[in-house]
Amino acid sequence: MKKIKNKRAMLWIMLPTSFALTAGALIACSNTNADQTLVDDIAKNVKSLTNIKAREKYLTLEDLQTALNDLKTNQGIIDVLDNTKSSSTDYTRNVVSANHSLEITPTIATVDNIKEVVRVSYTLDYNGAKAETELMVHLFTWQPPSTEVKGDEQVINWFKTVKQSYEVADGLKTLLPAQVSEKVSLNDAVTLGALDTLVKTTPIPEGFTTKWAQIAGKENDNDGTTELKLVLTKENKFYGANGLAIDSANDAVGVDVKLTGLETNKNLATTWYTNLKSETEVTLDTLKILLPSESVGDSVLLIQDLSTNLPYKFTVSVTPLAENAFDNVAGTLKVKVSLKKLDQFYLPDGTTVETVDTAGKEVTLKGFSTQVTLAKQWYTNSVKDESIASKSIASSTTDNVTDEMLTALYNPPSRIKTSTVKVTKVTETDSTTTQGSLKVKVTLLLGEQLFNEEGELVTEEQNAGKTVTLSGFSTQVPTVNSGTPGTNETPSDES
């Protein structure tokens, strides 16, 4: 094996670990193929060194060319390289190891003005194994090109025109911040169009469109503000303020745009209370057929009836007043209606409290069924001319049937609580009263008051009740035996 005078053997640190052979391995290696592989790999790695600089004293590429031309040793190359940075160190590491070195043929240096570099060509020689290589050397003042990827300048310049905050226009003023976020997430075209109008005072670059996204936790429904993230999109790529094309909208560095002047909880509450009239008609058919007293225990229906046109995400609480809440005659119910959102109850002026006791507005609900209606229906459906032939009192005559027996024929309407029925005979008869028939007056009472046939409450008995004819009573007249067979007897009047 050839003895090498230079004590430092050449080896490249950029070789894979598998090729970082020790000096002992080199000495022991006598295989020509292994030597050639080693030289080839070193030559390849010399070509891969792209950031090598010369010493500061070489001011031009021509000066550097002269210094690097016709060098016959690696040390000659090393002496030209910058020793204040990593250039000479990088080269030395890659060509020197232990007590062995690679020989080189005289160098040929040429200037590459396009790449601003001197190209140094030479042949490496080790134990007869040769490989051509080339080292590129830059001036001391040369700086490596930036590895930073530049974004689209049109996009960057457009984002510079986007303000940090915008006062919303009419298309958005009626929306709460939370509503804006919801509509953005649903890609509502009207909302997105209104947002675009705010920021497109400078037209966006051709071919691009906007992409808005909500920022969690930024909606403030109390002060009417929110923040949204804005990016641009084109051909399935997303662009932020840095102009870089990103595959995901979430990863794009967009800009946060603050919106002010949106709707507020307070304003919505005051407007709703203002529109809620002190006297309000119920709208549900299921409520209209109930007496006010019957609806008191059904808060679900009352809430459902008053939940129309509620502000966004608000609910309503309906509570009958403690005293004189219902009037079954007038068909009205007095309640307190309170708006609620989350854990706050609203007063009519839009301020909030934590309990329902001091919140809300007193409202009289109208349009319920009334006792007048029920009483009139009762007179119509239950009190009418009819035969009692199938009833137990049919065995009685019109003379001996009592008012109590007649009253037992009628049940008062169950929905008019505490109501009773009174039935009396009408002594006057007319030509329409047939044998076995009886005219009676049926009266529905509520305490000391009486219902007339139209369902109205009156105080005078003569103005109340309904007169009808009951037929089917017994007409059999009792006879007296005179002791003279065959003698007819005349009927007796019983009173």
UniProtKB/TrEMBL annotation:
Residues 1-34 form the signal peptide. The keyword Plastid does not apply. Keywords: Signal. It comes from the Bacteria. Residues 276-370, 383-475 form the Lipoprotein-associated type-17 domain. Residues 473-495 are annotated as: Disordered. It holds the Pfam family Lipoprotein_17. This is Lipoprotein-associated type-17 domain-containing protein. It comes from Mycoplasmopsis agassizii.
